[in-house]
């Protein structure tokens, strides 16, 4: 099943008299269980594409489907629903709440989803164990390394069992070793069948995924399916 599909997506920004074509007819799909890496130089349209894939913005033209439901014509409120139920976000800057423990941070999306206290504690623990932080659940973000904080953020993103994880430069604020930790977690999650979409300019991630989509000047320059390693 296609988790996500873009058909001829255009994004045109109006800047006074000038029109900036940030995306110019982008089409691709991500299948269930795929690990897609979207890579491209600065200015190629990655952030714009990320906003659209994350249902944070709508295309000027073209269509987007998430699990075969067209989201490109949805009203903002409906779009927020899709965002909360279907997408697990991972950001460069972790975005954890500093006063809450790792466990409480992971529980947050479950609170919003109305999951009972007992059940959400159970799920949050499970997710933290999955990312190798079973022994750190009561630590606050400041008591954790950058790599560990990002792992909490990944556990939080997984808590609602989203259709896919959408990561924005997940290794961008990390040193090489912590970055490698995150890549290992992503590999493991993908091996378990999770669908991952990572937007990055980190060339180290080039061969990580099962599919690499290269953006240039708002267009897809190439899509390479990686048959070695991840499948
Ligand atoms: P990347 O993330 O790859 O650097 P962006 O999506 O940020 O690419 O930018 C693609 C193009 O769109 C650039 O020319 C950028 O200046 C322009 N752009 C991005 N966001 C806006 C905006 N809000 N208003 C006007 N132009 C924008
Ligand atoms: P950076 O790492 O470049 O500081 P982020 O990766 O945190 O930025 O955010 C990337 C984009 O996602 C931004 O455009 C921002 O508006 C949006 N964003 C950041 N945090 C959230 C959030 N918690 N919920 C929804 N959108 C967010």
Keywords:
231 residues; alpha/beta; Rossmann fold; 6-stranded mixed beta sheet; 4-stranded antiparallel beta sheet; 6 helices; 10 strands; globular; binds adenosine-5'-diphosphate
Could you give a short description of this structure?
The protein has 231 residues and is α/β, with parallel strands linked by helices. The chain contains 6 helices and 10 strands.
Could you explain the architecture of this structure?
With 231 residues, the chain is an alpha/beta fold. It has a single domain (30-58, 75-225), classed as Rossmann fold (3-Layer(aba) Sandwich). Strand 4 (61-66) and strand 5 form a beta hairpin. The model has no long low-confidence stretch (mean pLDDT 94). It has helices at 46-53, 76-86, 102-112, 117-130, 146-158, 176-191, and strands spanning 2-15, 18-31, 35-39, 61-66, 69-70, 87-90, 164-168, 196-200, 211-216, 219-225. 32% of the residues lie in helices and 29% in strands. Helix 3 (102-112) crosses helix 4, helix 4 (117-130) crosses helix 5 (146-158) and helix 5 packs parallel to helix 6. It has a 6-stranded mixed beta sheet with strand order 6-7-8-3-9-10, sandwiched between helices. 40% of the residues are buried. One adenosine-5'-diphosphate is lined by residues 56, 91-93, 95, 168.
Task: Give the CATH topology.
Answer: Rossmann fold
Order of helices and strands: EEEHEEHEHHHEHEEE
Number of domains: 1
Distance between the termini: 16 Å
Q: Can you give the mean pLDDT?
A: 94
* CATH hierarchy, class: Alpha Beta
Q: What profile does the largest beta sheet have?
A: 6 strands, mixed
**Percentage of residues in helical conformation:** 25-40%
| The CATH fourth-level homologous superfamily | P-loop containing nucleotide triphosphate hydrolases
Bound molecules: adenosine-5'-diphosphate
Structural class: alpha/beta
User: Measured on Cα atoms, how large is the radius of gyration?
Assistant: 18 Å
- Proportion of strand residues: 25-35%
**Gross CATH architecture:** 3-Layer(aba) Sandwich
Strand order of the largest sheet: 6-7-8-3-9-10
Total DSSP helices: 6
Family: Belongs to the ABC transporter superfamily.
GO molecular function, one term: ATP hydrolysis activity
Keywords: ATP-binding, Nucleotide-binding, Transport
Organism: Petrotoga olearia DSM 13574
């Amino acid at each position: 099943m296609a988790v996500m599909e873009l058909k001829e997506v255009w994004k045109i920004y109006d800047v006074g008299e000038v029109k900036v074509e940030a995306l110019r007819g982008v089409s691709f799909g991500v299948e269930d269980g795929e690990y897609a890496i979207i890579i491209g130089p600065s200015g190629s349209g990655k952030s714009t594409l990320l906003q659209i894939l994350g249902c944070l913005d709508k295309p000027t033209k073209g269509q987007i489907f998430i699990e075969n439901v067209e989201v490109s014509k949805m009203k903002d409120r409906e779009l927020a629903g899709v965002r909360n139920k279907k997408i697990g976000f991972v950001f460069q800057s972790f975005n954890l709440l500093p006063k809450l423990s790792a466990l409480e941070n992971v529980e947050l999306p479950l609170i919003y989803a109305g999951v009972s206290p007992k059940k959400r504690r159970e799920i949050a623990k499970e997710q933290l164990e999955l990312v190798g932080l079973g022994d750190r659940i009561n630590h606050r973000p400041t008591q954790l390394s950058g790599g560990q904080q990002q792992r909490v953020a990944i556990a939080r993103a997984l808590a609602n069992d989203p259709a896919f994880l959408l990561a924005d430069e997940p290794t961008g604020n990390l040193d090489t070793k912590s970055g490698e930790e995150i890549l290992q977690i992503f590999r493991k999650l993908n091996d378990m069948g999770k669908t991952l979409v990572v937007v990055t300019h980190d060339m180290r991630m080039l061969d990580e995924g099962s599919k690499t989509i290269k953006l240039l000047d708002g267009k897809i320059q190439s899509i390479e399916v990686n048959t070695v390693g991840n499948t």
